[in-house]
Amino acid sequence: MQKIVLFGECMLELRQGGEGNIMHRSFAGDVFNTAVYLKRAFFEHQVSFMSGVGHDVISQELAANCQAEGLQTSLLRRSASHNPGIYLVQTDEHGERSFLYWRENSAARQMMKLLDDDIRNTVCKADLFFFSGISLAILAPEDRATFWQFLSELQEAGVTIAFDPNYRARLWQSEDDARHQFSLAFAASAIVLPGIEDFATLYGHQTLEDVVAFCAPFNIKELIIKNGPSSVFCKTEYCHFSLPVEPVKKVVDTTSAGDSFNGVYLGARQAGYDIKLAVELAAKAAGLVIQFPGAIVPNENFSELIRAQLLAFEHQAS
């Protein structure tokens, strides 16, 4: 059993239904989504969600939702003065989404102030720690030194660090601020899972070759670049290759495509799958997720796809 910790924010998601003014309520957030899909695909892993919540009703529902998804909640800490963030998501006819956020006083932003020895000791015993650019962006600037010290402790304890830049410009004070924090993250991470659009937006890199060259000076053991809807590029110490992705004919909602890919990929790698099979499984999962509205798709549909794909892998191996 692998122990995996994912650090980030979970918010109340409000999504407009097709029936007038009806709003669908659920919980989502990039790292939370990754945790859910990782646990659903590889239930044998111990998956913990590390975040800040409040003492309010929404926080109670959020914690219960984590438990319902099989996530460990021992790394949730409760703020006396802050509550979870909220966001409204709307999608156009092409499946592209837009968001309206209320997260300035989110309890997750307080997580480094809520950090304690129990969290440090627990996470130092984990096999894998995952965070994202959004995890960094929501931290107050004065709390980031505490985060990097915490990450240094994890590295010294032998925990593998994984990072997805997931750049969101509105969350950062400036592009220079984001670039500096991302450089620290790239330097600390053994596994990096960016989308090529992150580099286009923040660094002006327009090609896969530009991104690979940018990442070369860092000691990244596994670089997995989601190269748009057509392929995934993989680079390790020993090899590099691109794998095609089967296009989806009807895209309903692209929310959580990258998150589901990350979760399934990391779960597969921690379960011992080679990179090619991990990418194939993760791409299949992301292709399913974008055919449903909202960040978290029905479990029965997701689990059915994962089971079928794992059986196909077993058949190929035999």
Descriptive report:
The protein has 318 residues and is of the alpha/beta class. Helices cover 41% and strands 22% of the residues. It has twelve helices and 13 strands. α10 runs antiparallel to α11 and α11 runs antiparallel to α12 (299-317). The longest helix has 19 residues, at 299-317. The radius of gyration is 18 Å and the shape is globular. The model has no long low-confidence stretch (mean pLDDT 93).
Number of contiguous helices: 12
Decide which structural class fits the backbone.
alpha/beta
Based on Cα principal axes, name the global outline. globular
Q: Specify the biggest β-sheet.
A: 9 strands, mixed
In round numbers, the mean pLDDT is 93
What gyration radius follows from the Cα positions, in whole Å? 18 Å
Described by its quaternary structure, the protein is single chain
Number of strands: 13
Beta-strand percentage range: 15-25%
How far is it from the N-terminal to the C-terminal residue, by CA?
A: 25 Å
H/E element sequence: EEEHEHEEEHHEHHEHEHHEEEHHH
Low-pLDDT windows of residues: none
Strand order of the largest sheet: 5-4-1-8-9-10-11-12-13
Percent helix, as a range, is: 40-55%
